[in-house]
Amino acid sequence: MSRPKLCRRVTGRPQTSYFKPRGIPLRELQEVALNMEGFEALRLADLEGMTSIEAAGLMGVSRHTFGRILAEARHIVAEAVITGKALSIGGEKCKKAAGSGRSERRTSGESSMAIVAISSEGPELDDQLDPRFGRAGGFVIVDTATMQTRYLDNGASQVMARGAGIETAERMSEAGVDVVLSGYVGPKAFEALEAAEIKVCQDLDGVTVRQALEKFLAGELSFATAPNRQGQA
After folding, report:
1. Strands 86-89 vs 18-19: parallel, antiparallel or unpaired
2. Mind listing the pLDDT tens digit for each residue in 76-99?
3. How many DSSP H helices and E strands does the chain contain?
4. Measuring CA to CA, which residue among 106, 107, 109, 131 is closest to residue 118?
5. Rounded-to-integer distance, Cα 8 and Cα 155, Å
6. Which residue among 39, 90, 127, 189 is least crowded, i.e. fewest CB within 10 A of its CB?
7. Quick one: how far is CA 221 from the chain centroid?
8. Which string of DSSP letters, residue by residue, matches 4-20?
9. What are the contacts of 163-166 at 24+ separation with CB within 8 A?
10. Cα 137–chain centre separation
């Protein structure tokens, strides 16, 4: 059973709910619809000029999810403008934020909107967690908003003589990961993850990928403030 779609936070309201090309009767027009989460993403990114991290925090979604919402919204508006269609705005219920300030940083218990990468010995949730970060065989990546999973192979880093941790951290950033769950993370890898604003839950071993994920979702894991393995990736 799939998880229900979680509500997004919206602080802006549209001044009008409909646009149409001038001089063409409405009955002759095709229509595209921009929902409220798409409207909010456009407002924050393209009008307010916020970064994806800032905007995602305000909407209560991960960077990956915000990027998807923004791309879809831009496509809808472009379709209306380029093909001469009417544009309606609204339709989805979103949570009205109490204020316009920045949201607080996520804690280990607030995990319903994160893209989580778990170092793994295989591509399935029931495979064993690989306690190595930099030289892990791969990573099961989970979008906790939808519980969809994908697998990222890390074989190229396994054979590196040096720099495996940094290379793997870059791979996490390119995959849009918010949080890494693993066993041991060296100082260079930890620094690279911090620079990419990716949080780390470490000291995991002897569990499956699924068990590690369940611990994270239950708020049983804390975010590390320093590496737990010196001089290794």
Report:
1. antiparallel
2. 999 999 999 999 887 544 444 443
3. 7, 10
4. 131
5. 37
6. 90
7. 19
8. PPPPPEE----S-SEE-
9. 163/188, 163/233, 164/134, 164/135, 164/189, 164/233, 165/133, 165/134, 165/189, 165/190, 165/192, 165/232, 165/233, 166/134, 166/192, 166/233
10. 22
Hey, what are 70's tokens?
A: 């923004």
The tens place of each residue's pLDDT in the chain, 233 residues long, gives: 444 445 567 777 777 788 889 888 877 889 899 988 899 999 999 999 999 888 888 888 888 888 989 999 999 999 999 999 999 887 544 444 443 333 333 443 445 568 899 999 999 999 999 999 999 999 999 988 788 899 999 988 766 767 788 989 999 988 888 899 999 999 999 999 988 889 999 999 999 999 999 999 988 999 999 998 754 44
Instruction: Give the span between the Cα atoms of 37 and 70, in whole angstroms.
Output: 9
Per the CB < 8 A criterion, the answer to whether 216 and 202 are in contact is no
Per-residue pLDDT at 158: 67
Amino acid 28: pLDDT: 84
Contacts of 50 (CB under 8 A, 6+ apart): 44, 58
Token pair, residue 143, equals: 């979008």
Element (H, E) at 153: strand 148-153
User: How would you classify the pairing of strands 115-120 and 179-181?
Assistant: parallel
Distance CA 30, CA 46 (A): 25
